[in-house]
Structure formats: structure tokens, C-alpha cells
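so my prof wants the structure for this chain in the C-alpha cells format not the other one, which i didnt know existed until like an hour ago. anyway here's the sequence
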Amino acid sequence: MSIALIKALEERHRQVNEKGFDAANDDAYAPGVLATAAESYARAAYWAQVRTDKLPSPPSIWPWHDSVWKPSADPKRNIEKSIALLIAEYERLVRAEETSKAAADESGIEVWSHAEGEPFRSYALRELISDHDLEAGGTAYVGTHSEPLHGSMYSSAAYDAVTEQMQAAAEGDVGELAEEYPDVTPAQGALLKTFIDAWADAYCKPRFYLVENVREYVISVKDMEEASREEETRDSA
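here's what i got, hopefully its the right format
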């Protein structure tokens, strides 16, 4: 992996943690503003290579006040800022998509199980009764879908494992000379966490869901009658 991605993510962390340019700030921008700012710094990277005598003025497409235009004489630094701003725009788009899909997710939908400890596979009590030959007076279990799950919910153990395995491998090569290797700073550790979480969210999305607010439900005679009528209707269709 190119070190450019590492440095760009480091710059993105700086924008968020030192400058306060977090998700709430970015979501307030109109579509394309952050991408236009990224293009401006990409242009500055070119300028820094062909005109080393002075820093460039803000290009006409620069979306903000001139006072926040901070190009560098180092073209790599300008590229880092450009990529970091593109990351911010990408994340803004993802959040906007997630917001629009929120109404369509299954969180809060009731799900049913026929016995304690068994999976919640049915979306209606009538379906549960028919599938498991339940009877009036018997107990079923009902709960609700949790919010959508993300891979990063299960990646926390990977952070320490990475540095611990590096430590062990180094000690295998040079013994005690590898003491305290790798010695990462809190900021560097946060960067590693961001990478691992992003990888997990991109490639390890859970195909299961959690069930919340589980409670017992005693099946009534009326429930049995409704299940029977629905089964008859389905069989005659």
C-alpha cells in the first residue's frame, strides 16, 4: 500500500481532531464543495513542482475564504490535503446514502422464535405457529431487529494483535533487541484502528442481526385460529 494513503489519512485525522472538521461540519456543505477544495490542492501540488519561487494563490474554484487556503511548497503535502478532502467528500456521500436508506432498514421489525435459545427466523406469529406446530397455551418469544450491524463492531481485538504479532516476529529475529518494538504513539494507534475498522466495514459486513427487547408471548386460541385460516388460504391459492 502506498504511504500516500497513510499520510492522507493522518491529515484527515488532523482535520477532524485539531480543526474540528468532523462529520457534522462536512454534512453542512453542498454537494461537491469538498471535492472542489480537493481539486484546488491537487492543482497546488502541480504548482509547487513547476513554480518553486512562490506559493500559489487560491484558484478560482476554491470554495472558501482565502484565509483558509494553506498550500505547501512540498507537493506531497498538497496531495495529502487533496486526498484527505476527497475522503471527507466520500464519507459525506456515504452518510447521505445511509440516511436515505434508513427508512427501508429492518430495525424495529418484530421477529419470532419458537423456543428459548433458538434463532428468530419468523416475521409473523402465524408463520411461526404453522412452521413449528405450536399450540394454544404454549410460549413463543418475540423481539425486534437491532440497528444494522457493521464489521468494525467485531474488529477491536485486531488492533492489539497487529502490534503484538510484529513484536513477536521481531523478537524471533533479534531477541531482546526488539524490546518495545513497535512503539506506536496514541495517534498512530488511532490511525491503525481507522484502517482496520474501514477494512472490516468494507469486507466483513455481518449477514446476521441482533434481537433486542426479547419477551415471552403466550399463544392464544385466537392466534391459533388466525394461523389456521391463513394456512388454509395459502393452501387453496
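also thought this was worth mentioning. Residues 75-101 form the longest helix (27 residues).
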